[in-house]
Amino acid sequence: MYVYAVTDAGRSGELAAVPGVTGAPVRRITADGLTAVVSTVDGTEFGEEALRRNLEDLTWLEQVARAHHGVVGAVARQGPAAPLRLATVYFGDDNVRALLGEHRARFAAALDRIRGRAEWGVKAYGRPQADEPTVTAPGAGPGTNYLMRRRAERDRAARSLQAARDQAGRVHERLAGLAVASRVYPPQDPRLSGRRDEMVLNAAYLVPGGDGDAVRGLVDSCDAPALRLELTGPWAPYSFAGLDDT
């Protein structure tokens, strides 16, 4: 059983049209007042040894991640959903029921924490600043002037980066003030972000469901000339639904 998420028991929204991983049908397993959303998958592809190999295959990983996210998103639109990690697999319905029973209190706490709330993501990138006048020393030779220009460029880049970090800190403080909880993550590798500019903020915010306009308005109105801001969401609250969150 591939397990996508856990939600409240009694949810009966339609999931039959939502394709699971490898196109497998999605269904529910209920026990102890909770429901796990699952698909039956082939052990030759999702068994322990096969998973080790497949998780190194970026094409396979992307397909599974997209399907996983699609199912979690469909569940979250019907009520609170605590997503499980990608490729969480149990052998049989009874083992899934045992999971729900063993961790009932922790799942219930996670669902209560995210109930009626959504996750928004904000990334901030340093914006290149306007060039300053070229520094030269009258009478100095070409080598000296070259070194002076290089030093001035490094100093200008350092000032620009510090300004971006300072402004990103203020943006984060304002967004965290709107949120019930927030998480700051390490900057993404430029190969993942697809941007050459340096990322200076990578954060998630857990926001009451009706406050999305306030988040958009705050980001749109931020006085942060050293930044490019990127807002995403609302998402299922992956960052705040873990069993170990406090």
- What is the CATH architecture annotation of the largest domain? 2-Layer Sandwich
**Strand percentage:** 15-25%
- Uncertain ranges: none
The overall pLDDT average reads 85
Q: What class do helices, strands and sheet pairing give?
A: alpha+beta
In which order are the strands of the major sheet placed? 2-3-1-4
Overall spatial form: elongated
Which sequence of SSEs, written as H and E, runs from N to C?
EEEHHHEHHEHEHEHE
By DSSP (H or I, 4+ residues per run), the number of helices equals 8
Question: Any overview of this molecule?
Answer:
InterPro entries: GvpL/GvpF. The protein is 41% helix and 22% strand. The protein has 2 domains: 2-114, no CATH class; 117-240, Alpha-Beta Plaits (2-Layer Sandwich), CATH 3.30.70. It is elongated. By secondary structure, it is of the alpha+beta class. The chain has helices at 43-46, 48-54, 58-76, 93-102, 104-114, 142-178, 190-193, 212-221; strands spanning 2-8, 27-31, 34-39, 81-83, 117-126, 181-184, 199-208, 227-235.
